[in-house]
Amino acid sequence: MTHLQQRPIVGILEWFRPGEYKEVTKAIRDFQNLGITHLRTGISWADWYVEGTPEWYDWLFEELSKHVEILPCILYTPPSIGEAPRTSAPPKDLKAYADFIDVIISRYGNYFEWVELWNEPNNSVEYDFTMDFSWYKFSKMIDMAAYWAKQRGKKTVLGGMSPIDPNWLQMMAERDTLTHIDAIGIHGFPDVFDQQWNGWKEKIDAVKKVLKRFDLNKELWISEVGFSTWQHDEVKQYEEFKNVLQTEADRVYWYSLNDLAAKNATVGGFHLDEREYHFGLKKPDGSKKLLYKLLEKYGLDAIFTHDYISKSYKINSEEKYVLITGGAGFIGTNLAKRFLSEGKKVMIYDSLAREGVEQNLKELKKQYDTQLLVQIADIREELVLRQCVLNAEAVFHFSAQVAVTTSIENPLDDFQVNLKGTFNVLEAIRTSPHQPPLFFTSTNKVYGNLDGVTIEETQTRYLPKDERILNSGIGESRSLDFHSPYGCSKGSADQYILDYSRSYGLKTVVFRMSCIYGPHQFGTEDQGWVAHFLISALEDRPICIYGNGKQVRDILFVEDLVDAFLLAYAKLDKTAGQVFNIGGGTDNTTSLLEILKIIKTKTGKDMSISFDDWRTGDQYYYVSDISKFSTVTGWKPRFDIDSGIQTLMEWLCDTRDLTLEDNPTHPKALAL
């Protein structure tokens, strides 16, 4: 079956524990975002007898049924009536399972059409049936439950086989257990739990062969399928999702919406298998993985159209290329375009974690397809990264978690991406045969809040009282003072890179950057504030200022930054092992209030502006002393603030299809 043929009905598998009202409400919003209308969820027979659980299921069925078609999977025996004192044991009285299904149908039958019976017993802890509980007894239990569910007007699904076992299915058919079954469920976890995976066709054909042998006309459902991103491979999760949609299954339930929270045990126990905690489309902090973002933004029907997403686990290119990690981002895209326009080969290494950057990648691929190598991968995928470094003539390392606010909310992710990720890059370079030069974008946040710099306040900005700082800016000799997890991770990475130059002789250059702005920037409140202000103004969105708006930065147009990178590369004999402060310098300073005034003049927009508390690590005044880099390379910014803002505005208007009336200073409007 190709993706052009009719695909299976697609649902989500998500288990909810009694009392998880907030989790259910959030999940419903996610189902709506993803366009999901079918849900497979568990009903615990054991929990039913806990005080308050029936009332929980009353709420759950009613709430879910407003938004999705529910497939209840009924399992887990109360220990008091089981063959063994555990929920995975079968009931002593086989009819008791059918009786409980009757209870559920009587109470909630109006909310569902199908009911899934207990999964195939196997050697896992979850289904640790006692030794004296024979296959015959299991077959009898399922047959009685299926018969009674059919009498009550419900369609039945035989719980999933995991691993897929046609011999077991044949035994069930021989015992006439499948007579009252309407759909056969199977499970599959390619390259996770199913290590010897030969593809869905082989598995499904084996099941269909059994059904044909016994002349059984049943639907075939993949009732549980997923891929764990425990090694940060979100592209593989996306690929396996596409693969299962191309099967001949009638229905598919993807496991799962959310990663399992660390506070919860897996089937086997707490943290015994790390893979079990990473099957979700979203991480425990709510951040979205690649597959979620693609489904949310483009929909299920477009899932096969993302041909810009590619990944190779072994790089076969004979030709040298420039490797840009975070290459689909704002700075990476602009640097890549410069190299590509000069005829160089470029590899973009990016996880597409930042919202909107896939647009940059699609544009690059459309314009420079034959010169461009695309590697959608996480910076934490060490083996993949090492492959990509092997044939790189230079490495520009921009991959990062970029927001102070996000680092405070999720310091572990910030640490892993910014510090561990940079360490991975360094080690990949150090252990490579040719050790390509490394160029790294650090941050002015390594200097902290600039304690000791006395500030005075004017009507629109803060200014330092120290004449040297006022006239020259902050130099590289300034003491480091890491503030916020973001400052710590980027600052530590900064120091690792400098030390690898000293300790191992790597050719590295560190840029401690001020505020960069320009085309291909998807600015937010947390990062890229110049673009964020301009986008908000053009699209009539309100703007929130954190602090009083008088904080000052030297802003640098991205083309000037690209010039600096190329000069640092060309003059590596002078720049290697060095750190440079890079920004617009004293000639390109502005406060937030002042930039808003410029934007208002250029757009002709009246902006809705509000104010909120200062944010952690926000400096009242930061301006780069760019003299060290200028002396070494002869570089200086070409764009002043006015021309830079104008260029960015024109790009935003063109790419967002804004009308001339929305932008009276656009060149086309001025020509009228």
Please give a structural write-up.
The protein has 23 helices and 23 strands. The protein has 672 residues and is α/β, with parallel strands linked by helices. It has three domains: 294 residues, TIM Barrel, CATH 3.20.20; 92 residues, 3-Layer(aba) Sandwich (Rossmann fold), CATH 3.40.50; 234 residues, Rossmann fold (3-Layer(aba) Sandwich).
Give me the CATH fold name of the largest domain.
Answer: TIM Barrel
> What class, by secondary structure content?
alpha/beta
Write down the oligomeric state: single chain
- Morphology call: elongated
Number of domains: 3
CATH superfamily label of the largest domain: Glycosidases
Widest β-sheet, arrangement of strands: 3-2-1-8-7-6-5-4
Q: Flag low-confidence runs.
A: 123-132, 666-672
Largest sheet: 8 strands, parallel
**N-to-C span:** 55 Å
- Which CATH architecture of the largest domain? Alpha-Beta Barrel
Into which percent range does the helicity of residues fall? 25-40%
Our count of helices gives 23
- Give the class-level CATH name of the largest domain: Alpha Beta
Tally of strands: 23
Q: Rg, please? A: 30 Å
Binned strand content: 15-25%
> How much is the average pLDDT?
92
